[in-house]
């Protein structure tokens, strides 16, 4: 089976812009989760989608949003980018929540 | 209650030595404890996992030791190799919620 894929792999934006990241889960996985990874804060959970519904949400501001499509592909959007949003954004897919399979991530740099 | 504390932050081990990474948790409702390995430029990959009704699990050179009464678990890498140099994350899962990750340990195995 193909693994989790994320696009784009690298992105440079400026403050105030918005960005959309995409994730394609492993075939058959209906749960998609998003994480933010930074050197200072480690791996922080953003949100989880299951069957097109947000099932869990982390402690991030409303500028961070996501959605899931009927084919389980997911997108996350960050509006009004801040310098502190520079991070590696990881997507993970799962069949049972507890076992997460991560993609390679999208590295976002906000200037 | 949801925190998982991981130590040390970094570790240097000689080739052939034993690498030990420790994690402690507070919420006794956690019921699944995975370890992830992350190489630079890659997403975390599931390495080994344990449930709290088991005190030890071994897979090749990797062993998890679990102490339920102390609310601690650890990863032991026997015969450490330079190829094991990576960042390791412990995590804990609570049914219906998402994985809570430790802060990570950067392991360097010197040849």
Report on this model:
The complex is a heterodimer of chains A (111) and B (111). Helix content of chain A is 0%, strand content 54%. Chain A has 111 residues and is an all-beta fold. In chain A, strands 2, 4, 5, 6, 9, 10 and 11 form a 7-stranded mixed sheet that branches. Chain A has a 4-stranded antiparallel sheet with strand order 1-3-8-7, with no helix packed on it. Chain A is globular. The mean pLDDT of chain A is 94. Chain B has 111 residues and is mainly beta. Chain B is built from no helices and 11 strands. In chain B, the strands form 2 sheets. In chain B, strands 2, 4, 5, 9, 10 and 11 form a 6-stranded mixed sheet that branches. In chain B, strands 1-3-8-7-6 form a 5-stranded antiparallel sheet, with no helix packed on it. In chain B, a hairpin with a 6-residue loop joins strand 4 and strand 5. The model of chain B has no long low-confidence stretch (mean pLDDT 94). The interface between A and B is medium-sized, with 19 and 21 residues.
